[in-house]
Amino acid sequence: MELLKQRILRDGIVKEGNILKVDSFLNHQMDIELLQAIGQEFRRLFPDPAINKILTIEASGIGIAAIAAQYFPGSKVVFAKKTQSKNLDGALYTAPVTSFTRGTTFDVQVSTKFLGPDDHVLVLDDFLAKGQALQGLMKIVAQSGAKLAGCGIVIEKGFQEGGRALREAGVNLHSLAVIDSIDGGRITFRDED
Ligand code: 5GP
Predict the structure, then answer these.
(1) Radius of gyration of the chain (CA)
(2) Cα 165 from Cα 38, distance rounded (Å)
(3) For residue 97, which of 152, 56, 63 has the smallest C-alpha distance?
(4) Would you say the CB of residue 19 lies under 6 angstroms from ligand 1?
(5) Could you give the CA distance from residue 59 to residue 180 in angstroms, rounded to a whole number?
(6) Domains detected in the chain
(7) Which tens digits make up the pLDDT trace of 159-178?
(8) What is the 163 CA–ligand 1 centroid distance (Å)?
(9) pTM of the full predicted structure?
(10) pLDDT tens across 63-111, in order?
(11) Which of 100, 167, 182 for a ligand 1 pocket mutation test, highest count of atoms within 8 Å of Cβ?
(12) 32-45 vs 60-69: helix axis angle to the nearest 10?
């Protein structure tokens, strides 16, 4: 997605430890016009009319999913919670996730009220690195008995192994920008699908 790539080149900041900071437009301050274009692109890549749930993970995925949902009429957004809370009661789907940015492992949880065998789920997230977050969300979809329609990622770091492993496993995965390298602070992209 050319608009996104140009924005990454203009405003993305490469940090130590293979981290790309995009907090001026994606996951701290959010550029809503760009997010609308991202939502439209996800719709183009995932035209399945059966999609009725968009599943993401708090916090950064929520804004992306909520805006994308406008292009999936009638769909609901469900976000997996990372923290235990008294508000999260009743039966839960649970999967462990190791955070790429924090290095810690925690459980992500979704109430069984909001996903079930009748649902067709599109999983969305901001970044794909080693694939832990997506794997956790896909485990939750599997536990619920819902059908996984696909996984959409805004920025995939193609030099980390997550995307390759998921594609090899046959997951319908589309990333709007795939970064090949951030070596020396210089960002280069792979041709998109
Ligand atoms: P994975 O689970 O695929 O290893 O990492 C994906 C998760 O880690 C995403 O949910 C995202 O929040 C975070 N993440 C991974 N790499 C980056 C990065 O380069 N920049 C930012 N801002 N977040 C990242």
Answers:
(1) 16
(2) 24
(3) 56
(4) yes
(5) 26
(6) 2-190 (3.40.50.2020)
(7) 999 999 999 999 999 999 99
(8) 12
(9) 0.96
(10) 999 999 999 999 999 999 998 776 777 899 999 999 888 889 999 999 9
(11) 100
(12) 70
